[in-house]
Amino acid sequence: MKVELRIHGVAGASPGSVLYPGSDKPGKLLEDGVSGGVGFYRPDPQPTPGWIRQAYVWGGLTSGSRTRALWLLLLPFALVNIAFFMTPHRIIDGRERSKPLRKTIDSLQRLFALSLTATALFGFTGVYLNILAWQSSLTPFGGPLSWIGTLNANDISLRLSLSSLIPALALSLMWLLSSRTWKHTDQIPVPQGAPPSDGPLLTRRRMWNGGPPVGRLRSLHVGFGFTLIATTLTLADPHPWLLTAEAIIGAAIVLTVALPQAATRKDPEAERERLLTAFCTSLRWAGLLVYVAALLIPLSGPGKQATPGALPGFDPMVESVFWTQIVLMVVVAIGVAILARGHEDTSGDKRYGRALMGLAAPATMLIAWTYTAALAIGAAFIVAEMVGTPAFSRFQVPEAIVLPESFAWALYAVPIAVLMLIALALWLWLTYRRTARNTNDLISSHYPQPEHERVSKAWAAAALTDRAQAVFATIALTAIGTLILVGVILTTQMTTKPSPPLVLAGAIILIVFVVALMVVGYAAYRLPSLRRTVGVLWDISTFWPRATHPFAPPCYSERVVPELITRVNHLIADGNIVVLSGHSQGSVIAAAVVLQLDPAARPSTRLLTHGSPLRRLYARYFPTYFDMTTLREVQHATPWNNLYRNSDPIGGPVTTDIDQAVWDPVSPPPDSPIRGHIDYYVDDDYRTALNSLTTP
User: Fold this and answer.
1) Distance between CA 384 and CA 507 in Å, rounded?
2) Contact 387/399 with Cβ under 8 angstroms?
C-alpha cells in the first residue's frame, strides 16, 4: 500500500483541516497514538482509493496549552539559542576547517546565554532589592504602595532577605518549568539506527536527543542564578568568607559552561559523562546553599538602616555584566565573520545566499540582548516611577530612586529605535506599492487584464519576505547603535542631565512595551485564537534543540522527530511506500526525518514538500544545517517533489530538479481565491505530484 503521511505547518492546525482540507463535511477522525492532542490521526473511511492517509499533528506542543502564552518572557533565551544554529561552519572540500575557532565561538555563545540569565535576574533584583527593599525605605512616597517604605524600615537586612525571595522564586519557577519540559522532550530516546556518520549534521542521532547536556546546562544556570542573588545580598552586608565562596562558585560555573563537554551531544564515555553531570549538579546545590546563607546570616545581627543611594554593589554588578556582554558579542562577531568568509556558499543563487553575509548569529544575539535589557529596564522604570523619581547616580536629585547608569541608554536609544522601525515599515510599504504597480510578464501572459491588479498585489506582498534580510540588518544596526551609545555615555562621564523630552519618551515607550507584552500574554492565555497566533513564533524558534540556554522554550523536534522515525519504520516494515508530505514548517521536519532514517529504509520513502521555507529561509539563516549540500543529500536520499506559489510569503523553490510552480489563483473566473500559503492539498497539482512519486 501507499501511505500519505501529512505533517502540518505553523499555527497549530487541527486534525480535520489536515485530513479533510476545504471540506464542509469532514469524515470521522480516528486517533492513533495521540497524547495530549499530539500524535497520529487517520480518516475513516479513507478518502482516496489505493492510499492510506494519515496526519501527524504537533501544534499542541507550541500553541495548545495556556502556559505557552508565558513563553513570551522567554523569547530572549530562545533567540540566543537560535543564534547557535545560525553560526556557519567553515566547510572546504566537504571538511570542516578552523574547528578550534568554531568551538571557541560555541563556548562564548554559551557564556553569553549565561549572561542573559544574569540580566533577567537583575530585572528582578533591581526592582525588589534595589528599589523596593533598599531605596524606598529612604524615599517617602504616597499612593497604594506607601506601606512598602515603612515596612521594617529600621531593619534593612530583613527587608532585603524577604525581597530576595521573589527573584529566587522566579528562578525556581524557571528551574521547575525547564526540568519538566526536559523530562517530556529532551529525554525522549531516538530510535536506534545507523544513518551515515559522515553526512550532514542533521543525520546525527544525538541532534534530537539532548538530555544529559541540557540537564547540565540547566544545573549551571540555576546555580549561577542563586549565586548572583546571594552576591547581591552579601554586598549590602559584606561577609568576606561568604563573598569568597560566592566568587569561587561563580567562577567554577563560568569555567564549566565554557567547557565543550558541558553541552556536547556526541556520545561521550559513560563514566566521564556521569562525573561531569554530578559536578554540575553539585554546583547547582552549592549556589542554592550560598543563597540560603546570604538570606539567613544577616538576620542574626542587629537591625540596620539603608544608606542613601543605590543598593551597594548593585550598579557595578550590572555594569560589569553589561561590558562582558559587549566583549562577548564583539568577539563572537569577529569569529563568525572569519568562519563565514571561509565557508563554501553552495547556494548557486544570489537571491538565496547566506543572510547578512553569514553574520545572522551575532545579529540575533544583539536582538536577544536588547529584548532582555528592555524588559529589565522597563520594569525598573515602572516601579521607580511608582515609588519616587527615577535618576542616575551622577545627578543629585533629591529623594530620587537611583538606577544604574547603564540604563541611561534607554532614554536615548528607545525613541531612536522606534523611529527606525517606523522608517523601516514605511520602506516596506513603498517597496510593496512599487512592486504591485509593475505587473510582471508572468502575470500578464497567464491572467486576463481584470485580474492583473489583484494578482500583482498578492505576489508583491509575498515577495516582501525576501526583504527580511534588510529588516533583520536594520534591527541589528539599531542594537549596535545602542551599544555604541551606552559606551559613550559610560566612558565619557556624562555630566549634563538628560533632556526631559528624551527621558519622558524613553520611559513611556519602555513602559508601554512591558505593559503591552503582559497584556498580550494575558490575552493569549485566555483566547485560543490569539494563543495560536503567538504560537507561530514558537513553531519557528523551538524547532531547534536547546544548545546554549536551558531556560528557552522546549524543542518540539525532540519529540516529533523520534515519533515520526518510529512511525515511518513501522509502516515500511509492513511493506508500505511512505510519502512524507510536509507543509511549511512540516517540510523542515520531514527533511530532518529523511536524513535520520536508516539508509536501508530510504528507498521505501518519498518526500513531497509544499509551501516550504527550506531554501528561502532556512538555507539562508542556518547555512550549516540547511545549505544546498544538505538539501542535495535529502534529494539523494529519496525522490522529492516541491510545490510553491509566487503568492506564498513563506514557501519557495528549492532546486530546479524537483520544483513545480503552482498557479495562484489557479485560473479565471475572477472570484478564484488566492490561497497564498495555505491549502496546497486542494490543488490538482498536489495530487499529481503525490501520484508521480509512487508511479514507476
Assistant:
1) 11
2) no
DSSP 3-state assignment of 659?
A: strand
Q: Which of 243, 182, 254 is nearest to 218 (CA)?
A: 182
Q: Tell me the pLDDT tens digit for each residue of 410-443.
A: 666 778 778 888 888 899 899 999 888 887 788 8
Please tell me the distance from the alpha carbon of residue 552 to that of residue 368, in angstroms, as a whole number: 12
Could you tell me if 607 and 592 are in contact, meaning their C-beta atoms sit under 8 angstroms apart?
Answer: no
Q: Which of 483, 329, 315, 475 is nearest to 410 (CA)?
A: 483
What is the Cα–Cα distance from 645 to 647, expressed in whole angstroms?
A: 5
C-alpha span between 177 and 181 (Å, rounded): 6
One-letter amino acid at 470 equals A
**List of long-range contacts for 158-162, beta carbons under 8 Å, 24+ apart:** 158/299, 158/303, 159/133, 159/134, 160/129, 160/133, 160/134, 160/233, 160/236, 160/237, 160/298, 161/233, 161/295, 161/296, 161/298, 161/299, 162/133
Q: Is the pTM of this model over 0.85?
A: yes
Report all structural domains of the chain as residue ranges with CATH numbers, in order of start. Answer: 2-65+552-693 (3.40.50.1820), 73-353 (no CATH)
Degrees, nearest 5: CA angle 517-523-528: 130
Residue of 308, 315, 332 lying closest to 490 (CA atoms): 315
**What is the DSSP code (8-state) at residue 305?**
-
Distance from C-alpha of 385 to C-alpha of 634, rounded to nearest angstrom:
57
CA dihedral 407, 230, 114, 262 (to 10 degrees): 170
Q: Could you give the C-alpha distances from 641 to 176, 347, 610, in angstroms and in order?
A: 43, 19, 8
| Whether pLDDT at 446 is above 90 | no
DSSP label of 502:
H
Give per-residue pLDDT as tens, 320-376.
998 899 899 999 999 998 888 765 555 555 667 788 888 889 989 988 888 888 888
**Amino acid at position 174, single letter:** M
Q: Residue 154 and residue 150: Cα distance in Å, rounded?
A: 9
Q: How far apart are CA 7 and CA 40, in angstroms?
A: 10
Residue 130 CA to residue 143 CA, distance in Å, equals 20
CA dihedral over 551, 554, 558, 559, signed as positive or negative = positive
Provide the strand spans (E) within 337-487.
389-392, 400-403
Instruction: Name the band, by pLDDT with cuts 50, 70 and 90, for residue 103.
Output: very high
Q: Which residues are CB-neighbours of 57 under 8 A, at least 6 positions away? A: 8, 13, 14, 15, 18, 34, 37, 38, 39, 40, 41
Q: Which three cell numbers stand for residue 31?
A: 486517533
51-57 and 38-44 beta bridge pairing: antiparallel
Lowest mean pLDDT among 105-109, 384-388, 492-496: 492-496
